[in-house]
Amino acid sequence: MNEAWEVLIFIGMILGMAAIFGGYIWASRHVKKRDGQNAQQRAELLQFIESRGWSHTYSASGDRYCGGTPLPMQGTNIPIWDYTVGEFRGRAFCCFEYNTRNSTSGPDAWRYNTVFAVTMPTSVPRMVIKKPRAVDKVNARADALFGGGKVMELGDPAFDEAFRLIANDEEFARSVLTGSLAQFLTSDPRAKEEPLRFQGNDLLTWYQGRLRPQDIDQKLNYLCDVLDHWPAQA
Fold first, then answer.
1. What is the pTM of this model?
2. CA 160, CA 57: separation in Å to the nearest integer?
3. Distance, CA of 86 to CA of 115 (rounded, Å)
């Protein structure tokens, strides 16, 4: 190998290391910006909650909301934070943060998740609707040990292509998703990005990140829109 090639390889290695280091710095700053919460942001959140007449508790138990991502399938005394309850569009709701610590250190040592739940008029079997991932079937088999249901297809090509459906009760899932609700989900762009979990008396959605005032109305509106298409026979 001639000297010119050795120089080019050396320069390529330096540039590659610089790119990796720069990517790490950018990712760390992005995570810190997304997941950080300064005093002003916290004051804005509490002020927003108070202005709506909702109730806020700094910490609470999230056992009721276990049953799947982002919370564990089962648990006891699961801590949740900024637990907020109130009424939105005539429906009782709550929202909160569920945070876990990663094995790493630094700005991304904590993983922050925000969960929204709207109370349904009746209890229903667990059913999850979300964007498909390659590992869903493997995860569903593991979750089934804790009552997590199984992956199924509705038989509607548009729905089955857009979503992964995991249900405890296949007959119930088909009865609910035959008609208006399935049509709404396949036509509404929010549905492809916002997962749903029906469980007991709760309909939940979630995202990775902190609880921010600007997200609350949007998420609750989506959950209420979903329930507006809930079939009467269900």
1. 0.79
2. 39
3. 14
> Kindly report the CA angle at 202 between 187 and 178, in degrees rounded to 5?
40
- Residues 83-98 have pLDDT tens digits of 999 999 999 999 999 9
Question: pLDDT of 153-202, one tens digit each?
Answer: 999 999 999 999 999 999 999 999 988 999 999 999 999 999 999 999 99
Are 95 and 114 in contact by the 8 Å Cβ rule? The answer is: yes
DSSP 79: E
Nearest to 100 by CA among 91, 92, 109: 109
Rounded CA separation 38/185 (Å): 36
In angstroms, rounded to a whole number, what is the distance separating the alpha carbons of residues 169 and 126?
8
Q: How far is CA 56 from the centre of its chain?
A: 21
Beta strands in 131-218 (DSSP E): 150-152, 164-167, 196-208
Specify the residue for token string 């916290």: 42
Strand, coil or helix: what is 209? coil
75 Cβ contact partners less than 8 Å away, ≥ 6 residues apart: 62, 63, 66
- The packing angle between helices 39-51 and 213-228, to 10°, is 40
Sign of CA dihedral 70, 76, 79, 80: positive
Inter-residue contact 229 to 187 (CB < 8 Å):
no
Q: Collect all residues with Cβ–Cβ distance below 8 Å to 188 and sequence separation of at least 6.
A: 225
Residue 149 contacts residue 143 (beta carbons within 8 Å): yes
